[in-house]
Write a structure and sequence with these properties.
The chain is of the alpha+beta class and 569 residues long. The protein has 13 helices and 33 strands. The radius of gyration is 41 Å and the shape is elongated.
């Protein structure tokens, strides 16, 4: 009996313990479920709170951008993020898609004058430039608009704007923020070339003015590219007034050009080394490179050249080490002559001499540039400029030459020279064994038989050369050259093209007197008939008061006005 009661009590205690454990586990599960639910509710509330804050921040930012756009655009709000696409153009004017034309037109932007846009680089994840830009270098520049013909979702950007937005490498998909702004007309600009040489250009401010005609804006810290013939100069914008971004359309700007810093000087910039008469300079030139020198002819030297009929000798003595050079000379303002833009040249193999005479209409007082061009290999040379005295007969000196009519002569059947009759038989026998006449039409030169194999004529121009000179002749005179304006011609035609037809040639403007690039043909038919270049057509459109009546007349019409109104020739 006691045994059964003990077993029943143990069984009851065990069941009570199991019920307590199950109840405890249930309570733990419920507590954990409540804690998990609370965590989820807190996370949801935190996410909702963050979204509400982001929405409020985005709304505030949008309202701020709207206010800035209204302020910058003076009532016109235009903001787009477009993919940047490069196109080959000049200046700083971009191409926008047609939808932008409609949006700007609806807001009356075209009635407010020239349109300007602020272009900013949009940061992207994974971009190599993002980290640098986030440190405070947010690339921003400004531009005008050329036309509305770009593909939808893209903006076509010329090289000037592209290089300022992407100075190193552009991302795979370059995105640009385009915002309509209004810019004040500029009054002052301070520029700094990145290397020496720009300030030495004749009328460099006029060259800069011609380059700026293709621009609508300038922005501080931008790099402006100025071309002078084949040379390219880069100028950094250090300071602008009245603001850090200005309009350069229809305004007069005071420009200061400061000297380049020592740390920014480029070593590849051309430099003119002075060369005195009678002195020589030695140097080393590599293939495809130029070394430049300058010398001057003053009034006293020119008077001596004209009165004494002396000549100027420009000479290059080159070492025979397998290299070769060419010699080019030009008169300023062409300060850096090259292969297809020069006034005098010499292409002899080895050492070479160039004689300049006062009878040459291109020679006169002024400064001249001399270029030593590395035609082949690396060449050591010595260059010099001398005044060459002419040797004249003394008074009473007898000439040693006698006419063929003074004695009885007969023409040699081989060399065609006139030989005295008494010795013609011996001469012809000797001449036929040792001499030969060049059979090329128009040549007729008499050569020794051993020299005849090296006497050749160019198949294109017919000029006679030594066989070793033919390769250089073909490369110099008959290899097509590409002008910076895009025309491809042989050397002789290229020199003529660059002297009279090339839009990049330098001319003296008849209205402002500056040496500027001629440009293409004038847009106005009447200006083309008067022979005005593109620059002269624009420059001559400025007005000035007539000296006789005080009326404002365009400079290019002043001569017609004087004849038609005042009967002055």
């Amino acid at each position: 009996m006691d045994f059964e009661l003990r077993r029943a009590r143990e069984k009851l205690d065990k069941e009570q313990r199991e019920r307590k454990e199950r109840a405890k586990l249930k309570l733990d599960r419920e507590r954990k479920a409540k804690e998990e639910a609370k965590k989820q509710r807190d996370a949801i509330e935190a996410a909702q709170r963050s979204r509400r804050l982001d929405a409020i921040e985005a709304q505030l930012k949008a309202e701020q951008q709207m206010g800035e756009s209204l302020l910058a655009g003076r009532g016109v709000v235009f903001y787009k993020i477009l993919e940047a696409v490069p196109f080959q153009g000049s200046g700083d004017k971009v191409k926008l898609p047609p939808s932008c034309f409609t949006e700007l037109s609806d807001q009356g932007a075209f009635d407010k004058g020239p349109m300007y846009f602020q272009l900013s680089l949009v940061h992207q994840e994974g971009s190599s430039a993002t980290k640098d830009d986030e440190k405070g270098n947010n690339r921003t520049t400004h531009s005008g608009v050329l036309e509305f013909t770009a593909d939808e979702g893209s903006v076509a950007i010329p090289p000037h704007v592209w290089s300022n937005l992407f100075p190193v490498d552009a991302p795979n998909i370059p995105l640009v923020e385009v915002r309509y702004v209004r810019l004040s007309k500029g009054t002052y600009a301070k520029l700094q070339p990145d290397g020496i040489g720009f300030s030495d250009l004749p009328n460099h401010k006029a060259i800069l003015e011609t380059s700026l005609r293709q621009h609508a804006t300038l922005s501080q810290d931008d790099v402006l590219t100025v071309k002078y013939g084949e040379l390219t100069y880069k100028l950094r914008v250090l300071e602008l007034k009245p603001s850090s971004s200005i309009s350069v359309l229809e305004t007069d700007i005071e420009v200061d050009i400061v000297n380049p810093g020592v740390e920014s000087e480029r070593t590849d910039q051309y430099v003119l080394k002075p060369l005195a008469f009678g002195a020589s300079e030695s140097g080393l030139v590599e293939e495809g490179n130029y070394m430049y020198y300058k010398f001057s002819i003053d009034d006293d030297a020119w008077e001596k050249l004209v009165s004494d009929d002396v000549k100027i000798e420009v000479k290059i003595d080159a070492e025979a080490n397998g290299g070769d050079t060419d010699l080019y000379v030009s008169k300023h303002p062409l300060i850096f002559p090259n292969r297809h833009q020069h006034e005098w040249s010499s292409h002899d193999v080895g050492s070479k001499t160039l004689i300049l005479s006062s009878k040459d209409r291109n020679l006169g007082t002024g400064t001249y540039s001399l270029a030593v061009y590395g035609f082949k290999g690396t060449t050591k040379y010595q260059v010099s400029v001398h005044v060459q005295e002419n040797s004249k007969h003394k008074v009473g000196q007898q000439a040693t030459h006698s006419s063929s009519m003074d004695v009885d002569t007969v023409e040699c059947r081989n060399c065609k020279h006139f030989i005295p009759t008494r010795s013609i038989a011996l001469h012809e026998a000797y001449c036929s064994r040792h001499n030969v006449v060049c059979p090329h039409a128009g040549c007729g030169i008499v050569l020794r038989i051993e020299e005849a194999k090296n006497h050749v004529h160019c198949d294109k121009c017919g000029q006679a050369f030594h066989l070793g000179e033919m390769e250089k002749h073909m490369k110099v005179f008959h290899e097509p050259l590409r002008c910076p304006c895009g025309v491809v011609l042989e050397k002789e035609d290229m020199v003529q093209h660059q002297a009279s037809d090339c839009p990049l040639r330098l001319i003296a403007c008849r209205f402002c007197g500056d040496m500027v690039q001629a440009g293409s043909s004038a847009m106005d038919v009447r200006d083309r008939l008067r022979g005005l270049s593109e620059h002269e057509s624009i420059c001559g459109s400025r007005t000035a008061p007539c000296d006789s009546c005080g009326r404002s007349v365009m400079l290019k019409d002043m001569d017609i006005h004087q004849i038609a109104v005042h009967q002055k020739n």
